[in-house]
Amino acid sequence: MFRCFSFVLKDNLSIIRYTVTDMATLQDYRDERLRKLQELKNLGVDPYPAESHRTIGAGEIAPKFDEVEGQTATVVGRITGLRKFGKLAFIVLRDQSGQVQLFLREGDVDQLDAPRSVIGMKELPLLDTGDFVEATGEIIKTKTGEISVGVKTLRLLTKSLRPMPTELTNKEERLRRRYVDMNVNEDVRNRFIRRSKFWQATRGYLDQHGFVEVNVPVLEHTTGGADANPFVTHMDALDQDFYLRISHELPLKRLIGAGFEKVYDLGPRFRNENYSDEHLPEHVAMEWYWAYANWQDGMKFMEGMYKYVLQETFGTLQFKLDRFEVDMSGEWEVWDYATIIKERYDIDVYESSLDDVKKALADNKLEVEQTENRARGIDKLWKNIRKDVAGPVWLINTPKFISPLAKSNPDDENTVQRFQPVIAGSELGNGFSELNDPIDQLNRFLEQQAMREAGDDEAMMLDIDFVEMLEYGMPPACGWGYSERVFWIFEGVTAREGVPFPQLRTEYDAVTKAIYPDVRLEAAPAKTPAVQQENKPLSAVEEGTKKLYLDDFALLECDAEVMETSSTEDGLTTIVLNQTCLYPGGGGQAHDLGELSWQDGHLEITEVSKEKDGTVLHRGHLEGALPRPGVAVHCKTDAERRLLNSRLHCAGHLIDYAVRKVGVQWKPGRGAHYPHMSFVEYEGDFNADEAEALRQNIETEVNAFIARGGKVGVRSVPSGEARGLSDYIPEPVLEKYQNVHLATYPEDFNVCCGGTHVTDLSQIGEVKVLKVKRKDGRNRVSYTLEGLES
Fold this sequence. Notes:
Blueprint: E1 5-10, E2 15-20, H1 23-42, H2 65-68, E3 72-85, E4 88-95, E5 98-105, E6 132-141, E7 147-158, H3 171-176, H4 178-184, H5 186-208, E8 212-213, E9 219-220, E10 232-235, E11 240-244, H6 249-257, E12 262-270, E13 282-291, H7 295-314, E14 318-321, E15 324-327, E16 333-336, H8 337-345, H9 354-363, H10 374-386, E17 393-396, E18 408-409, E19 412-416, E20 418-423, E21 426-427, E22 430-433, H11 438-453, H12 464-472, E23 477-483, H13 485-491, H14 510-515, E24 546-547, E25 557-567, E26 573-577, E27 579-580, E28 594-598, E29 601-610, E30 616-624, E31 632-637, H15 639-661, E32 667-674, E33 677-683, H16 691-708, E34 713-718, H17 719-722, H18 731-736, E35 739-745, E36 749-752, E37 767-775, E38 778-785
Parallel strand pairs: 5-7, 8-12, 16-17, 24-27
Antiparallel strand pairs: 1-2, 3-4, 3-6, 4-5, 6-7, 9-11, 10-11, 12-13, 13-23, 14-15, 17-20, 18-19, 20-21, 20-22, 22-23, 25-26, 25-31, 26-30, 28-29, 28-31, 29-30, 32-33, 33-38, 34-35, 35-36, 37-38
């Protein structure tokens, strides 16, 4: 992995600098160390003894020299320098506390004592930089004034087989081998000492204020507390799938319902999303919940906590964070959301029109989208303010249309009880007065569940047990959460630099493969998590109304039988059939139109929708007699509308293909495939400077794929196998059915999808990729079809 770096290899005569430029060189050095290892073993020396001890840290000797001079001490550590001049030798020894010089003189140093792993002057050539040793002797000053340990006994603790580089600057190399990075770059190791202090101080402040730490489960049957896609695993003992938690929230609030009044947990959480400079799929976070407290109590408490934690971690409350000078020592400003928008833009967030908001966006050179709405536009205006705020500032009275799931403010129903710290242009935490109305909570869960069933795998899951807890009663409470992103911001590093071992794609370079030619480096395939099969429909086709369009993309007409009918005051009629060829919409794709006809009437369809139980509702204008249950009807799909929707939908999938083809490490997410608005969103790093070139490359790849042509088909596969066949996996669908449908494209490109598709690539036409941009924390690729641009 170390391609072209410099390091120092020191023998018993001199210091020699080498530059590794190919695997042969590194392998030669390793082979030489293996030879020395074998020679030590031949002497009877254990090169990896189990025992060691020390009486003082290497870095403690110099500061305490006046009081420890002349004393016998034992030090341990890694050799970072080794020189030998005739009957004298000098070793630089480093441990976590610092370094010290070892002074060895022939006649003073004990000879070889193999059973104790003691080596003498004669065996010094068998040592290398990187080896660990234990040295015992008198603390002295040499004739040149160097504070040293005059060695009496030298023990080998670990024989290293690879030379440690003297510098390491390549970012990927550093992240892949942090153990080398921290040896070479001491500032990196010190960063993680500060990270530890950050969480120690967080825990200490909470403990001092009467909070009880309770570790809640990482594995959950249902996961909630945030809009995020969870990781899935399988527990063999129960033969059930579990989720890795995305938040600590719901279990901690259960503890408030259980009688705890101040409770917190601190530990990892997992969100199956891509990397960015501020987000990692796995990261450490803390959440606390405080019964009988409101958001104002929480805001005052957190102001004190920030000051305490930052002082304990960094030893100061004054920071230079990028372009911001931030002083955390004073009293924080409190900003009212509506007031700050009014002062900056002369916009009333509650009374302004969409045109007013668009004008403010345009006047401030902010993007105005064709599909802009008031809430999104006003949020953009706030973020334009936020990016220049040094802080610390508390943002309060957030409008309900910005945070629709938060608890309303009793003094102003237009706002919610939420408080957010704004520091260095970022929001670094989130606090609320917690929702404790069980009926309100259930309704919000049901709304989120409907979003999941429509394909939004980041929407929250229904947690009926949590609702039942609320029905037993949970007192009013304040809740707060922040993650290690707070540490990253104040440390001044990106997310990957801020954790010791960031996850990276597994790679083995030529050096490693050459050194271990007989070792199978690739891990055995992991067992695909089983999906619980009991009481699950065979597939979406069979659930509720039989959905014929899932098994045949070309099917536009079918016969069916009426199951039930109803009429409403608005003059529309709803008919439920035993089966249908009309698509009910969902997953960002519009529903079909068409008509149902029978002997003495027909229904002109204006909407097709699907209930949670899979029942498809055909709604429209009735002409003639209302059909009774059991009557035979003929279903006919509007072929022109179906084709347009399918073309747009398939173009979105081909953009997924193109993104992968051009080598961008993005994870597919949500999309919309409507004539007036089509886009696909992804999680991953974004470089605005490369966006236009990426747009062109994606467009080229998509249209080249279409030009090569081929059929588009469909097949049903077991849910447990779908993960290995499709890049995009709608987890809620896999959870719900025994089998799922794969749309099969040429070139072995498969998509797990329940929408409609073209049957041949030639039907799609030319795709125009309009823009690649960062929007609301995701990477959005907007597109349309030739002829639809207007």
